[in-house]
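Key result, reporting period 2: structure in, sequence out.
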């Protein structure tokens, strides 16, 4: 099983797209983590629709895209390695039998077999672009459920950011010009470098402009709606002038 997929690695776009939870695949040796297919089709296993949006954006922009090919229940590739939910034993009330009572050796194997290959693939794309003197704007694509723990999410699209809001602020303003959608700002999730991994490690560490976006998964349930929302988001990105960003690591 391939641990990640890379689309258009030499794409001409300034955008580099990440999709941490693109797949609900579980390696055969993990025996579906003891879960029924119905559980593996739920949001606990992946970000429903996020891969389709990422693929559509990659095509629209001719942008490199790196998509994780392993379920977030095997290991969450957008969590710090010391996070308690890196390999969740329970997710949204569902016990994950294959993650119960894991030894440290088993956890380390998951990191080496599944976490690192995905992030190495991202590094490969970014470092190749740095070698050519091409600056990158990192966009991480996620999806969220319409409700969680009894709380509804009114936002069809939401942006998460941390200290650098140079992309998030104008992008929010552009999206909010539309009267037909509700746009969230750090709702229902903010971008927290102590929790999130992908944007902090690959973008913030480099000083690259970035944003994390959440689409509500009921509005991107099929290829048609995924393409439509990708186009809407692409138009908003194109309306925002990019900030000059360094092409190498600080001090590098």
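The corresponding designed sequence is given below.
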């Amino acid at each position: 099983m391939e641990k990640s997929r890379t689309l258009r690695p030499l794409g001409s776009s300034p955008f580099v797209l990440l999709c941490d939870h693109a797949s609900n695949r579980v390696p055969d040796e993990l025996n579906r983590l003891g879960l029924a297919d119905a559980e593996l089709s739920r949001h606990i296993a992946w970000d429903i629709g996020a891969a389709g949006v990422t693929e559509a954006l990659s095509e629209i922009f001719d942008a490199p895209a790196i998509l994780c090919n392993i379920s977030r229940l095997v290991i969450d590739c957008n969590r710090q390695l010391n996070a308690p939910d890196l390999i969740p034993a329970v997710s949204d009330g569902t016990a994950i039998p294959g993650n119960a009572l894991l030894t440290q050796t088993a956890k380390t194997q998951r990191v080496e077999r599944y976490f690192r290959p995905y992030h190495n693939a991202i590094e490969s794309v970014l470092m190749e672009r740095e070698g050519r003197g091409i600056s990158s704007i990192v966009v991480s694509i996620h999806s969220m459920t319409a409700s969680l723990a009894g709380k509804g999410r009114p936002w069809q699209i939401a942006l998460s950011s941390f200290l650098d809001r140079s992309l998030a602020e104008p992008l929010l303003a552009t999206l909010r010009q539309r009267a037909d959608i509700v746009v969230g700002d750090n709702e229902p999730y903010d971008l927290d470098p102590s929790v999130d991994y992908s944007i902090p490690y690959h973008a913030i560490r480099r000083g690259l402009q970035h944003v994390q976006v959440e689409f509500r998964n009921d509005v991107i349930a099929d290829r048609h709606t995924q393409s439509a929302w990708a186009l809407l988001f692409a138009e908003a990105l194109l309306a925002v002038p990019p900030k000059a960003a360094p092409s190498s690591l600080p001090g590098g």
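DSSP finds six helices and eleven strands in the chain. The first strand starts at residue 4 and ends at 7. This case is discussed further under Risks and Mitigation.
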